[in-house]
Amino acid sequence: MYSYIITSIMHKKVMRKKVQLLVAVVVCIVLLSASMMPALASDPVYGPGKSIKAVICVEAKEYKDYVPHYNDHFPQGSTVKIYVEAEGKTKKDMKTGDYKPSIKFTMTGTRPTGATFTASTSSSKLINYDSTHYKETYGIISFSIGKNDKIGDYRFRVEATDSNKGGELIGRTPYMHFYVYEDATLYPPINYTYSNLTIEPNPAVVGTTVTVTVNVTNLGGKGNWKGETVYLDVNGTEVKATKTLKLENNENTTVTFRLTKKELGEVPANFNISIGGLNETLMLQEKAPTATPTPGAGTTGGATGDNRKVPGFTAVTAIAAFTFVLIYQCRAQKRRDR
């Protein structure tokens, strides 16, 4: 009995250790895989101690002026640009007095076929005019992909050597990757989106012109650049269309439509207005009744026509009668006095 219990306990301890060992192996495999995974094309890649920096780009012009590729896929017939930076020893230019570095950047890689490829550039470009013994510079390596080049994985790395130090190696990136595919694009695909659909006035009176506006934005790029026609539907039926828009990446515009009785009719009703998946309800109402003047408005006593009284007529008649009576009495008194 005791031997069975002891055996069970020992078995559990052994199993626990095996499980712990298995977990440790799995963790190591995951970490190793992560460390070996190539960086995305849009991410800068650095050599040890940040001795060199390299970015796979679609555009590169000046110091830190470049456009990283949005992913790591290039079409056949395109050009891969590698923006690189490194710091090297400077040497005084006796003509200009500038302290210039002189670094050669070399890209060396392997094609999907196993054949090697290389491209390079040398740079003494200045990023400042300090009189320092070491200075950073930058370069742009261009690698052209032929229209018939093999589709697949292109693996490479970039080295920096200092010409002012006899060609000494000063930096080397880890291996980087880009991929060549037929349907790849240099820029992100277009992504037209719609927002802020407004209707003015709303409610509207029958016969009124109604203005409908909507914002259109290209949240993507111009990888498959094409125009976008904006359609306006009333109760599910297309009634208006704009001229074709062609927006750059992150560019936006406001599109305006005007609806008249031709599209809305002359009968009060509710209409569903739809543009690009956005919906709003337009309420079309009857015209307000025309105000009818009140009979006798603006006259005294509310009389109209021949029966209208002239303001102050009663008072004048009373004064005249009083005067007539007064004159008559005066004459009568004079007769009696005679």
Strand content: 35-45%
User: Cα distance, first to last residue?
Assistant: 172 Å
Oligomer: single chain
Q: In CATH's first tier, which class of one domain applies?
A: Mainly Beta
Task: Indicate the mean pLDDT.
Answer: 83
* Secondary-structure class: alpha+beta
CATH topology (level 3) name of one domain: Immunoglobulin-like
Tell me the major beta sheet.
6 strands, antiparallel
Brief rundown of the structure:
With 338 residues, the chain is an alpha+beta fold. It has 3 helices and 20 strands.
Description:
The structure is a single chain. Mean pLDDT is 83; it is low at 25-41 and 298-313. It is built from three helices and 20 strands. The strands form four sheets. Strands 1, 2, 3, 5, 6 and 9 form a six-stranded antiparallel β-sheet that branches. It has 338 residues and is of the alpha+beta class.
Provide the descriptors you would attach to this structure in a database record.
Immunoglobulin-like, 3 helices, six-stranded mixed sheet, single chain, 338 residues, 20 strands, six-stranded antiparallel sheet, 40% strand, 19% helix, alpha+beta
What layout of secondary structure does this protein have?
Blueprint: H1 2-36, E1 45-46, E2 52-62, E3 65-68, E4 73-74, E5 79-92, E6 99-101, E7 103-110, E8 116-123, E9 134-144, E10 152-162, E11 168-172, E12 176-180, E13 192-200, E14 204-205, E15 210-218, E16 231-234, E17 237-241, E18 252-259, H2 261-264, E19 269-275, E20 278-285, H3 313-337
Parallel strand pairs: 4-12, 14-20
Antiparallel strand pairs: 1-2, 2-3, 2-5, 5-6, 5-9, 7-8, 7-10, 10-11, 10-12, 13-15, 15-18, 16-17, 16-19, 19-20
